[in-house]
Amino acid sequence: MAVVSQSANAVEKAIGHVEGGVTEQNMTNPERDREAYGDPSGEKMKALVWMGKNSVEVVETLKPKIIEDRDVILKVTGSTICGSDLHLYHGAVVQLQKGDILGHEFCGKVDSVGPAIKNLKPGDRVVASFQIACGECMYCQKKLSSQCERTNTNKVENAMYGGRTAGMFGYSHFTGGFAGGQAEYVRVPYGEVNLLPLPDDIPDEQGLYLSDVLSTSWNCVVDTGVKEGDVVAIWGAGPIGQMCAEMSFMQGAKRVIVIDGGAAAWRLDLVKSKTPKVETLNFTDLPKGQSVTSMLKEMEHGGPDVALECAAGEYAKGMGHKIELALGLETDTSEIINEMITSVKSFGRCGITGVYVGFTNHFNIGGLMERGIRLIGNGQAPVHLYWEDLLKKLQNKSLDSSIMLSHRINIDEMDTLYEKFDARADNIQKVFVQTRFSDPPAPGTPALTSWK
Asked: Which terminus of the chain has fewer Cβ atoms in its 10 Å neighbourhood, N or C?
């Protein structure tokens, strides 16, 4: 995959970018051009950077500066790690470069603002959306912020997908090349569009997760059409799967069955402990002769009404797909999607929220067509469409993001966090990463963990 990523970088350099970009891109670390992107004070910050496949480091680098009138420089008070970050860690997403600052979920306090910013001021508490939207294009006018037409001019993505996502923080040059928020400072383009003020009654340990996980989970559930009386099966018991289970019940689901196994099997017990109505299925502990599909059909006549993919396409189970992934014959395995297709009732709905980046083999298109299965790519969640309503749900206690929060660490141990999170070790579910700018822990949240 490293060769593929290097080739994609070379292709992008050769063919240039799509026209129409409205903000500075391919600036993933201020050290790449100290004069153009580094704060003139010379102040340093800690940041987590990608150094190669399965290698990240916490380094000192320059604080970013305002380079455009609508920029905001944010003091990061909270960030986290996401399952999507592991795709970068593994090198499964193309166009990473050594030294890129990672991280797409973060909140903070405004440090400084560009001259065109009118409604934010230093000291304001805000959360950032993981996508960078202009607020003005066709998609942004509909609050479909993840598909902004103007903040990612990457021609490789455009050619692969027939279009481009918005620019994204800390997620490779494939999505615009923006420095991420696993750092002590971050530059936020179009700050008034991409930052949501946090009220005093919402601590960072709740508000942070509006950045991605809550919006992504909600999008998965509502976009796939979970409704009153549905039986829902969810592949993956990580934070997204856990919140999808909770939100499916909020939407009236009758039953929710969560599937996981292997090194992450402990997550099934965690999800069950937080949401007792959930039923669980361990794919590594099936009765002899049984499969996930056969077990689901035993648990519910005809299978579930809805299947939600909250895992991702890079995790092959069978040897055939492992070989094809290793040889570059596919970028994503179709195993989970095929299980979903064969498991749901005829005319059932299958939503894909776990990350799939390219192409897959052995896809069961016959089962999809013959049984009338609705396969829905949920897309990168349009955070701006949901985050104000989700904030209200946090405020009125109809939604509680703390059920997934398991650990709190310092940013200087984030490289160790990547290793442990990748290994599904130490019962790490969702983490709050503090910086020197963070407030004291909110009551009832995890105490600080250190592995030093």
From this structure: C
